[in-house]
Amino acid sequence: MQNRITKLFNIELPIIQAGMIWCSGWELASAVSNAGGLGLIGSGSMYPDILQSHIRKAKAATSKPFGVNVPLLYPDIDKHVQIIIDEKVPVVFTSAGNPKTWTPILKEHGIKVVHVVSSTKFALKSEAAGVDAVVAEGFEAGGHNGREETTSLVLWPQVSAQLQIPMIAAGGVASGKAMLAAFALGAEAVQVGSRFVASAESSAHSNFKQRVVDATEGDTQLSLKQLTPVRLIKNEFWQQTVEAEMRGAEKEELLQLLGRGRAKKGMFEGDLINGELEIGQVAGTIAGIKTAAEIVEEIWTEFKEAHQKLSSFQIS
Q: Which domains does the chain have, with CATH numbers?
């Protein structure tokens, strides 16, 4: 398949693996790229030297393009950007901040830049900042989320109608049928996060992977809205955040409750009780742990089959 996104990144399939903290290291990114999509290293949980190591290992594991996801609020952002430039990473996805600061610098070095947004307003600002594409991420998504709480089926067509650059759809995409729906609403690629958490190559702890597989409808909720909204699996830590917010806890108390390393404790170390377990609503549809290549093939095959089925419908 060829469209603006596959040509932009020089990839075979318009399937992009999200750069998720504690879950997407070099093994997952290179595996997705080798399968024909675009893999991303999630740098938000990495010190600069660790990021450099992951980039170099990904280079050794694949000859195909891969990228790095960079949260713009990361304290060592300048060091991350310099490593990315020095290592000649071809693609950067930015999130959680203003793309205006770093986009021109990255593009000066020939790097393709994509920014993640949760509203049309910020999609247009990203386009004005010079990014090559945007990821429009709906309310269903896991991890840090938009305050607007706009669902994917509402967000995607509004963003795609306003932009001249390509839109990548995210938030609730874990199947080929969902991918086809995203394309019908203006997407030229999809970004998949939660499904790749439950992959063999994901760096998530096996406890967390299994909890994702075991999740059912309604097991996640957007929480910590006074800080930065984040979608979590309901557990004891989540319950503590809900109780604190219901009694009107101030930001300082919530920050103390969140503490340091809460996400690492849950997703990387496998503490399902006290850890922060970030995942999307679509976790309820994930039935098992598969390799990244199997996931890419499954999504792409279902996409083609669903497209063919819809094309056969007779409309009078």
A: 4-203 (3.20.20.70), 206-282 (no CATH)
